[in-house]
Amino acid sequence: MLIDMDKLVSLCKRRGFIFQSSEIYGGMNGCWDYGPVGAEMKRNIKDLWWKDVVQMHDNVVGMDASIIMHPRIWEASGHVDNFKDDMVDCKECKKRFRADHVEGDRCPECKGELTQPRAFNLMFKTNVGALADAASIAYLRPETAQAIFAQFLNVLTCSRQRVPFGIAQIGKSFRNEITPRNFIFRSREFEQMELEFFVEQGTDEQWNKYWIDRRIQWYYDIGIEPKRIRVRPHEQNELAHYAKSCVDIEYEFPFGWQELEGIANRSDFDLSQHQNFSGKKMVYRDEINKKEFIPWVIETSAGVDRILLTVMADAYSEEEVEGETRVVLRFSPKVAPIKVAVFPLFKKTGLQELAGNIEQDLRKSMSTSYDEIGSIGKRYRRQDEIGTPYCVTIDYESLEDKAVTIRERDSMKQERVSMDQLKNYLTGKLEL
Ligand code: ATP
Asked: Is the CB of 144 under 6 A from ligand 1?
């Protein structure tokens, strides 16, 4: 079902997924903070990406670069000159909009007259060191990719990889978006997961296809409904001048089909630019075939926050249970922030100790939660709202028969499992 975004935003706050940044000071537009379960879930998404892209490929290695880099990097990449959005201002209410987000020449909010479009660079500028002069200007990176190109030679040498091979990175990026919107979908500070895969020209199309297929499969594997995922090739007039081709992986959000990830064949543009600007030869020497070339690049670039929003929107469901509305996040166990919650049926000595011991033991293998407050029904609902796949209840019988009740989130079915089988049972079901 296509869900109501307001409900999702309020659930995110209530249950500790996402808060407005600096809320007690009135908020910071375009910035968001992840709460206890949001932080867990974000880590899961990044780990799942890293596992699939780096760990499962012997020809992909990782790196972790600094956010502030030499400003020449952004001249070479074209960001200083070209990373701009056209923006228009309303002459009446003074609000600012992206020109491609408004139709006509009237303000979408107050119908006032708009200015002509003006280019606005999206990079955040800062000064490094004590002097705030032109020589000290630096930028917060607007993408993680450029550090990979800038370190291409070092990584190539130390990793002893041969083309085709890739370098992957996860990290924060910053863009001074004119109109941050749709919750965490478009923010000013966000995280990217990027892979630059270096190939020989002529093999680029086959690798491009490989990565498009692989990345789509990953979305299915983390539980996204396939009918809400599509691949949209860019039209010729949308392509950056250096890109040979580009596709967006899109998801059908409540606010329409939107980009989650871009996959581009970037030719040898990036390494050639850095060669020109740095004076360092960015070539790969193929010792076996005795040739030397600047590799071509297939890039996959995904946003962690957008994927988290996708997973949440895709998993959200409401249903009637015994006359009440049950809100449940039907996450794949892989992304669920808490895998299992443990409850003593009553707040009574004996039950509390046993439940506590069971939870302490499960903690070693999975993320857990212990809850003894309120009725069992209320405790189930709390876990449903954060998408916990399994709840384990310890009752008086458990003291006798050494077994516990496991309740599954989606079917709400309950099963009795012996304590010595519990961990195996759960790790099997959770595919840990
Ligand atoms: P858009 O057209 O939506 O501004 P883009 O085409 O400029 O995005 P890319 O530069 O291709 O985006 O960035 C790669 C990925 O990084 C995007 O697919 C998205 O998941 C993520 N991303 C980009 N900008 C933002 C943002 N402002 N907030 C959150 N995620 C972002």
From this structure: no
Q: Output the domain CATH number for residue 56.
A: 3.30.930.10
Q: Would the CB of 141 count as within 6 Å of ligand 1?
A: no
Average pLDDT taken over every residue of the chain: 95
Contact by Cβ (8 Å): 359, 342: yes
Q: What percent of the chain has pLDDT over 90?
A: 90
Q: In the prediction, which pLDDT does 216 show?
A: 98
- The residue whose CA is least distant from atom 23 of ligand 1 is 303
Selection from 250, 261, 263 nearest residue 298 by Cα: 263
267 and 239 Cβ atoms separated by less than 8 Å: no
Are the C-beta atoms of 218 and 186 separated by less than 8 Å?
no
Residues 296 and 345 in one domain: no
pLDDT at 264 over 70: yes
Q: Could you tell me if the CB of 250 is within 6 A of ligand 1?
A: no
User: What is the pLDDT at residue 295?
Assistant: 98
Distance 391 CA to ligand 1 centre (A): 37
Output the CA 306–ligand 1 centroid distance in Å. Answer: 9
CA distances from 427 to 273, 333, 367, 405 (A): 49, 10, 11, 16
- Asked whether 302 lines ligand 1 (CB < 6 A), one says yes
Tell me: do 292 and 347 sit in the same domain.
no
CA distances from 388 to 47, 290, 309 (A): 18, 56, 17
Q: Which atom of ligand 1 is nearest to the CA of 187?
A: 28
Q: Which whole number is the average pLDDT over 309-329?
A: 95
**What number does the ligand 1 atom closest to the CA of 264 have?**
11
Number of folded domains in the chain?
A: 2
Helix (H/G/I), strand (E/B), else coil: 368: strand
Whether 133 and 254 map to the same domain: the answer is yes
Q: List the beta bridge partners of residue 400.
A: none
166 with 286, same domain: the answer is yes
Atom 12 in ligand 1: which residue has the minimum CA distance?
262
Distance of CA 360 from the midpoint of ligand 1 (Å):
40
Cα separation, 69 vs 141, in Å, equals: 8
Q: Which domain holds residue 41?
A: 5-69+125-312
Q: What is the pLDDT of residue 87?
A: 92
- H or E segment to which residue 284 belongs: strand 284-286
pLDDT band per the 50, 70, 90 thresholds, residue 149: very high
Residue 292 DSSP code? E
Q: Are residues 345 and 274 in the same domain?
A: no
223 CB near ligand 1 (under 6 Å) = no
Looking at the structure, tell me whether residues 26 and 161 fall in a common domain. yes
Q: Determine the distance separating the centroid of ligand 1 and the alpha carbon of 1, expressed in angstroms.
A: 25
